[in-house]
TrEMBL record:
Residues 28-64 form the GRF-type domain. This is GRF-type domain-containing protein. Keywords: Coiled coil, Membrane, Metal-binding, Transmembrane, Transmembrane helix, Zinc, Zinc-finger. Residues 79-127 form a coiled coil. The chain crosses the membrane at residues 138-156. InterPro entries: Znf_GRF.
Length: 157
């Protein structure tokens, strides 16, 4: 990708034949217009310039790209389309990286929770073994007290 002029949402680098940014494609909102294609309706397939942040912005810039025979204009449209695709892919990549980061944090938190639960389980098992031992000792003490009571009652009679 070295040597490629990349385009990101909010800034741009579309050039005219003289090497500068097309002034008509820089919007009042400060963004460089991108090329979009109509996907539904009577104008399906037609291309137009629009704000790269649409529909999440109040910028309502819209301009049809009319088919003509000018090769330079056609190449500019192709460059803008490629830059638009790159910008969209970079934005999607950024969203996916953020999602991965959040999932990694969630995974780490779940691993910590699992480790804490294992420790609590071990502690509960130890307590259960202690209570089982205590129950056995109490049962033995109860039987022994009954035997002693029976002996005392037998001896007193």
């Amino acid at each position: 990708m070295a040597g490629l002029n990349t385009f990101s949402v909010g800034s741009g680098s579309s050039s005219n034949s003289k090497g500068g940014i097309l002034p008509s494609l820089i919007r009042e909102c400060g963004n460089v217009a991108v090329v979009r294609t109509v996907k539904r309706g009577p104008n399906v397939g037609m291309k137009f310039h629009g704000c790269p942040l649409w529909p999440d912005t109040k910028c309502e810039f819209f301009r049809w790209i009319l088919p003509d025979s000018n090769a330079v204009d056609n190449l500019q449209v192709h460059v803008l389309e490629a830059n638009t695709t790159i910008a969209e892919m970079e934005y999607e990549k950024k969203l996916l990286e953020e999602k991965i980061r959040k999932l990694q944090i969630k995974k780490e938190n779940l691993e910590e929770d699992a480790h804490e639960m294992k420790n609590e389980l071990c502690e509960m098992r130890i307590e259960l073994m202690k209570s089982s031992r205590n129950e056995r000792n109490c049962t033995m003490a109860l039987y022994l007290s009954w035997v002693i009571f029976a002996l005392v009652v037998f001896w007193l009679k």
